[in-house]
């Protein structure tokens, strides 16, 4: 009887030991998650890993994220520390972790608002204030203005070939942005299928609008005819 009792006791102790709660995350991890600013993960560009599991120091791990509004430096540092910690956990031996933070509504232009990097032991945060201006210029018009506007030109048109963007606003102003460049403002008017845009410094330019295909065509000396599709 004692032998049976001893065996049952041992079994229960082992079972309880196997069902023990998992260890709690470190305080640093909890704080990072709690205080982390809101973001949307767009994509991950993973580094190449050799067959023996080695990652070259030249390889990049890139996280592309979207944030709703500009962040203070301490919030950007929180994002930086979080993704560095995540990157090192997911890719042991990674030497370069890069976070490209795009402002909502500007991702299509290909220019991040902030580049948050770890290169070796060096951490850096680079902010592009021009993107804040771009967001302000391309903000959606108010609901009242949208309802009043009947011109089908109002909206965003994007060229897959050059990654340039036209934004036409209901107040007859607009913004043209070359990928990676600063936004340029213009005024516009439409007569039938001909859209005339006027830049303060560069003069006038005519585009052809196709309402059925919802495209704009631009004649470029460098690229020939470029087609911009409504987004």
Descriptors for this entry?
single chain; alpha+beta; eight-stranded antiparallel barrel; five-stranded mixed beta sheet; 5 helices; elongated
Question: If you had to describe this structure to a student in words, what would you say it looks like?
Answer:
With 231 residues, the protein is of the alpha+beta class. The chain has 5 helices and 13 strands. The chain has helices at residues 2-18, 27-35, 73-90, 129-137, 143-148, and strands at 40-45, 61-67, 96-103, 114-119, 122-127, 155-158, 165-168, 173-177, 184-191, 194-199, 203-210, 215-220, 224-230. Strands 6-7-8-9-10-11-12-13 form an 8-stranded antiparallel beta barrel. Strands 1-2-3-4-5 form a 5-stranded mixed sheet. The model is unreliable at 1-30 and 142-148 (pLDDT under 50).
Question: Topology, pairings included?
Answer:
Blueprint: H1 2-18, H2 27-35, E1 40-45, E2 61-67, H3 73-90, E3 96-103, E4 114-119, E5 122-127, H4 129-137, H5 143-148, E6 155-158, E7 165-168, E8 173-177, E9 184-191, E10 194-199, E11 203-210, E12 215-220, E13 224-230
Parallel strand pairs: 2-3
Antiparallel strand pairs: 1-2, 3-4, 4-5, 6-7, 6-13, 7-8, 8-9, 9-10, 10-11, 11-12, 12-13
């Amino acid at each position: 009887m004692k032998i049976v009792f001893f065996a049952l006791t041992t079994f229960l102790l082992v079972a309880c030991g196997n069902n023990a709660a998992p260890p709690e995350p470190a305080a640093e991890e909890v704080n990072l998650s709690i205080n982390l600013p809101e973001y949307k993960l767009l994509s991950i560009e993973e580094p190449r890993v050799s067959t023996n599991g080695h990652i070259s120091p030249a390889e990049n791990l890139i996280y592309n994220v979207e944030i709703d509004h500009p962040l203070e430096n301490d919030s950007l540092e929180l994002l930086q520390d979080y993704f560095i910690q995540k990157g090192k956990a997911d890719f042991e031996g990674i030497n370069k972790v890069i976070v490209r933070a795009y402002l909502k509504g500007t991702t299509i232009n290909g220019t991040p608002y902030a580049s948050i990097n770890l290169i070796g032991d060096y951490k850096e945060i680079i902010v592009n204030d021009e993107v804040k201006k771009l967001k302000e210029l391309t903000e959606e018009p108010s609901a009242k203005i949208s309802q009043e506007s009947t011109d089908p030109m109002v909206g965003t048109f994007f060229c897959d070939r050059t990654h340039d963007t036209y934004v036409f606003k209901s107040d007859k102003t607009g913004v043209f942005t070359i990928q990676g460049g600063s936004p340029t403002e213009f005024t516009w008017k439409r007569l039938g299928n001909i859209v005339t845009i006027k830049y303060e410094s560069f003069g006038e330019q005519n585009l052809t609008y196709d309402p059925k295909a919802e495209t704009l065509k631009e004649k470029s000396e460098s690229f020939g005819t470029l087609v911009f599709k409504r987004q």
